[in-house]
Write a structure and sequence with these properties.
The protein is an alpha+beta fold. About 50% of the residues lie in helices and about 15% in strands. InterPro entries: Njmu-R1 (IPR028280).
Length: about 525
């Protein structure tokens, strides 16, 4: 497959790869400094959000969000310096959690703040995100009145009375830390730079004095041993003496490297402060229902990663609209994608199991993101995503997806969505296994949470059959009876072509390849009869 040009933007998908939305690039600058193309992309993105907003309003679950910022009692610049010198200092400083954006009610907001505060005091909030369950703090017993009073003081008020309508509901949430670098004012930057320069000068002088002192001590020691003013050559000749070696070992040639590292970190962060935002995405569901939001951990992590870019922008409208539609963007993409492909889902299932690459071209970036998220959910290997369209083009969005663990890719599946929402797919391969699972997906397309579980079951079923087939083939090397059992297993399987293909790519043993060729030849003869 041809290599992409160096102008393409690599957008990865796991921890080693990132998958930021286009909003991270088009909103990386403020609206006042945005170009005409960037403003067109912002307008197109806002229009796309309006479509998913209606879907979010019709959702039968009560979902909401709360974005908070951690603010210390001292100035931000002082807090940033404390972070560079000693990260433990901030734990002893007083702070408050202030609401930045939320669409939750007062009681929901207090419950979220109480939950985040309890995790924050225990250092249990991470940038990779976590899944949790929020309890109604207003229903706490009177025996915990002391803890309640402490929380009230940190939250800035007492908790409102709880409504009894949601007693049978449970609140599941995804919470994470978002660190955003923001520039400080000019005076603070100048003061910090001057302080760093002074520290560098002091450190340099200290190192110079230490070197001078060391040289003087060495010369004096050598002079005492020889009884004369020795030259440098005489000093080197006398270093074999036990007394000289003992004195040299006792000399302090060390330099305070830790101080220099602190100075370097101060230089790197000069003019910037790191603000800590805490985002909590919540949805209420019946207690009898299993919490399935943990299966969307990857999608929620990508969403929160992009929120960090939106926080930097001055377009608060897009930020609030994106946060309000988090459930539709992160979870309901499964329903939208299945509605779009319908019975062609079997083609996507077959191509994803075969480990093929994809080229996606759509006029709407949200449609492209839905397709990418769906392909990631049904693919066994991780997919690397590269955006190949120009950032200045707001009418066409192009992406390329490549499986990580596949060395050579012989087939590229092109997925094109026209302006009239017509789907064009150049792939025709499928089998009975993929058609069966296509019907399963279509029957459950109204429930996105169940669809995500079905995607995991689909991949697990393939992995189990592949492992079973691999063990049978390995045992067939010296046993013709097991070779015949392997043949019967393939005859009864409706996914034999995928199993053959995956085992060939994953095995370089000549004996195994010979067995696979024999089985494939026998299957072809069986089909011809």
């Amino acid at each position: 497959m041809s290599q992409l040009s160096s102008s393409t933007d690599n957008v990865g998908l796991s921890k080693s790869q990132e998958f930021p939305l286009s909003i991270s690039t088009m909103l990386g600058v403020s609206t006042t400094n945005a170009t005409a193309n960037q403003q067109q992309q912002q307008h197109a993105y806002t229009n796309s959000l309006s479509s998913v907003s209606e879907e979010n309003d019709n959702n039968n679950m009560n979902n909401y969000y709360c974005l908070m910022i951690k603010e210390y009692s001292s100035s931000p610049a002082d807090n940033n310096n404390n972070n560079n010198d000693n990260n433990n200092n901030n734990q002893n400083q007083s702070f408050t959690l202030n609401i930045v954006h939320t669409n939750a009610t007062n009681i929901q907001t207090h419950n979220i703040k109480s939950f985040i505060l309890s995790k924050l005091l225990k250092n249990l909030i991470f940038k990779r995100g976590s899944i949790g369950r929020i309890e109604d703090t207003s229903l706490a017993s009177s025996s915990n009145s002391l803890n309640t009073n402490v929380i009230d003081s940190l939250l800035g008020g007492s908790l409102p009375s709880s409504s009894s309508n949601n007693k049978n509901n449970e609140i599941s949430c995804y919470y994470t830390l978002i660190e955003v670098q923001e520039p400080t004012n000019t005076s603070t930057t100048t003061t910090t730079t001057t302080s760093i320069n002074n520290n560098l000068t002091t450190s340099s002088s200290s190192s110079s004095n230490t070197t001078t002192k060391t040289t003087t001590t060495t010369t004096t020691t050598t002079s005492d041993l020889t009884g004369t003013n020795s030259t440098s050559d005489d000093t080197l000749d006398n270093t074999n003496s036990p007394l000289v070696q003992t004195d040299i070992e006792n000399l302090d040639f060390s330099i305070n490297i830790n101080d220099n590292q602190i100075l370097l970190s101060e230089i790197e962060n000069c003019g910037n402060i790191i603000k800590e935002y805490y985002l909590c995405l919540c949805y209420e569901h019946p207690e009898s229902q299993v919490n399935n939001i943990d299966t969307f951990h990857l999608e929620l992590g990508d969403f929160c990663y992009d929120i960090g870019y939106l926080i930097k922008s001055s377009n608060q409208e897009i930020l609030t609209n994106t946060l309000s539609n988090w459930y539709s963007l992160c979870i309901n993409y499964l329903t939208r994608t299945i509605d779009m492909f319908n019975d062609k889902i079997s083609l996507l299932l077959h191509s994803s199991l075969s480990g093929y690459a994809y080229n996606i071209e759509t006029p709407n970036d949200l449609i492209a993101k839905d397709i990418i998220h769906f392909l990631r959910s049904i693919s066994i290997p991780n997919l690397t995503v590269i955006k190949t369209s120009s950032e200045s083009d707001s009418t066409l969005f192009k992406y390329e997806l490549n499986p990580e663990s596949v060395n050579s890719i012989d087939t590229i599946v092109n997925i094109t969505v026209t302006k009239e929402n017509t789907l064009i797919l150049n792939y025709k391969g499928t089998n009975g296994f993929c058609r069966k699972w296509c019907r399963i997906f279509l029957d459950a397309k109204a429930d996105s949470l169940r669809l995500r579980n079905l995607a995991e079951e689909f991949k697990l079923k393939v992995i189990q059959e592949l492992n079973h087939f691999r063990r049978m083939v390995d045992s067939s090397k010296n046993n013709n009876y097991l070779l015949y059992k392997s043949f019967l297993f393939l005859v009864g399987s409706d996914n034999s072509d995928i199993l053959f293909d995956l085992l060939k790519k994953d095995n370089d043993d000549p004996a195994v390849k010979e067995i696979l060729n024999i089985l494939q030849l026998q299957l072809q003869q069986q089909l011809q009869q």
